[in-house]
Amino acid sequence: MKKTLPLFLFIALTACSAKLLLPTQTDVNRVSAKYPGYTWNELMAGKSIYEQNWRILKDPASRNEEQWKEIVPHLVKKLNKRKGKEVIDSKAQETLLKYLITMSMVPKNTSR
Asked: Per the domain annotation, does 32 fall within a domain?
């Protein structure tokens, strides 16, 4: 029993976290009119910020653009306050927001 408990906890925690889609160039192309000059590297940087700072990840598609625009400033403010320093500055916040908006627009029937 003692040996199986850690394995069970690992499986349970892994199952609870959302599996984020791997961004592709197609995602960048889809938002190129909204974000001229946006790159796949910027999209991946936003994904990295999201993964590093929030343990319980919601699927970016769980919210729409307007909701993310409202939520992200609160998330960043709360994180910076909790850490006692500016973990995410305004540029990183914009990178995060672009990632979330881009990935919230992934068509539902996309299989990756």
From this structure: yes
